[in-house]
Amino acid sequence: MDPAPYLALVVGLAVVCQWVAWRAKVPALLVLLVAGFTLGRLFSPDEILGRELLFAGVQLAVGIILFEGALGLRFRQVRDLGVPILRLCSRTVVITWVLVTLLAWGLGFDLRAALLVGAILTVTGPTVINPILRTLRPTRRVSQLLRWEGIVVDAIGAILGVLVLQVITSSGRTGPLLDAVITLLRAVGIAVLLSVVVGWLLTWMMRRDLLPDYLQGVTFLAAALGTMTLSNAVQSESGLLTVTLLGILLANQPGLHIQHIIEFLEHLQVLFVGALFVILAGRVEPRDLVGVADVAGLFVLGLLAIRAISIAVGLAGTEVTKQERTLMMAMAPRGIIAASITSIFALEFTHAAETAFARGDEAWAAEDFAGAETLYARAGDLYNLAQEVDRLVPLVFLVIVSTVAIYGLGVGRLAERLGLATVTPRGVLFAGSAPWVVAAAKRLRELQVPTLIVARERGDLRQARMSGLRTETASIISEYAVEDMDLAGIRSLVCATRDDNTNAIAASEFSHVLGRSNVHTLKRHDEEESTARRATAGRLKGNVAFSPPTDYDTLLANSRNHWRVTSTVLTDAYSADDFWVEHPRAIVLFVHSESGTNVASGARQGGETGDVFVAMIPDAETEEAEAAERRRTEAGHRETVGPR
């Protein structure tokens, strides 16, 4: 097959697999790996793309994935978590490296290959953790700890792998350990220098409006790729650390607005992750998997124990709670970074062996027979080691499949038992604190539905706080609300402020956080008289809340006129139609069922037996007075139009 149709097929599979995983509510990586293994039996990526081009592309794609992740790491998000993050990126990394090395060595791998796989498996896979966090939506502290660990430790793991490679392949006069120290200093130095220079340049250009909006995303992308390539040219495999530092530096520049750039790179990241898993899984032969199957089970069990030990020891004495540490022990799936780095290092050992063999030929031609014999022996040793590292590739893929299945499928129930997340979030976030909002939140609380009420002024939340409801004093369109606010257990947003434009902006911002289908706004005051020139742009609109759709003033007036928020259970004897007959002027706010809590919508909300309508209805006296007023109005109308 030609490269073009093969790549088109890979992209198509990457998208379809991730959609299937979303529909089936399983980790996308598992579906991608199955598709990759299957496609690899039909077409060989190495034969179609060539190993050199393939791994160059893999390296660049991994760099973009880490750069995109680093752009979301804000220091202000972790001001109270500095020590735990430092421990995760230092002490736990060393513990994991040492213990995984001992595990692999004990299972029969060469010590040098064991050191390498120990370095590689210090990474925890942000490409897997981030989708799990999106679905699970745990507490802010746990989420931030895992995000920082996933991104930063990936770059550290790559550098550790380079140091091991340097020690093993070193043939310099200074000795392997000194070579490794020089390599480390050079990698860190070039990473800091390039990230600071390129970061300053990009910031300077953005602040002086030297980049039009349509070029900003691709400019950041090109800068990341160029910086990574230059860094790798100076020091092999230092590029991942460089782009990680560059992303963190740009993310923490005050006044630099890059959310649209992050969204652009997020789309690329989804595509690259899917494509990389399909391609790299296609390189693994079934016989290779069978060859390491005998040790894979013990290796995976050992990794689970090592994760628990490294977290327990690494975070001991920090402010991280016992529940948070327990959840973190169960969240270390490996992902595309581990797979790609292992494959790249296997190729590097082959290149080192070929280089040693070529130098042996040169020494033989120069009649330095003793030197030639030494180089030939070294080349043979490196070839054997390359074959040992090749065995690590299928082992790492089995580790990826196993850890994603174990951590990804089991962590939800554990997080729920620990009180740090909800397997099926059903909570409601209210923007605005009108009296009817407080009444609705109290009714939802009776149904065991978590709520959060957000208002700009603390005084506006007095009634909600006195009712024992969870509140936050913040603007719903602030960076804090959109990026930092703890949304554990929250599924839906109801934008219920007095200002229609604030509601529209909040709906647009939170559609990226909760999903567009879960974001709702009140009916606009001017909805009936809006024209094409005055109507809100479609991208700013949320779903119109409640049944029938109602604006802020009407809901507030109803509240002042003593309308009540009630909950009504639908039964076989009392259906949704019966509810509407009894309460024709009701406003259904929410529909609660065993599967979740949904914001009501449409002109006449339907329901099934067992559903609970949370609705706003007139009290008996108000309803009777309104009915009498309608009768008087109708009578007056008949007098006016009747015969004289």
Automatic annotation (TrEMBL):
Residues 621-644 are annotated as: Disordered. It is found in: Cell membrane. One of its GO terms (biological process) is proton transmembrane transport. InterPro entries: Cation/H_exchanger_TM, Na+/solute_symporter_sf. It is a multi-pass membrane protein. Residues 627-644 have a biased composition (Basic and acidic residues). One of its GO terms (molecular function) is antiporter activity. Keywords: Antiport, Cell membrane, Ion transport, Membrane, Transmembrane, Transmembrane helix, Transport. Residues 13-415 form the Cation/H+ exchanger transmembrane domain. Its main location: membrane. The chain crosses the membrane at residues 53-73, 85-107, 113-133, 145-168, 180-202, 214-233, 268-284, 296-315, 327-347, 392-410. The keyword Cell membrane applies. It comes from the Bacteria. It holds the Pfam family Na_H_Exchanger. One of its GO terms (cellular component) is plasma membrane. The keyword Cell wall biogenesis/degradation does not apply. This is Sodium/proton antiporter, CPA1 family. It comes from Kytococcus aerolatus.
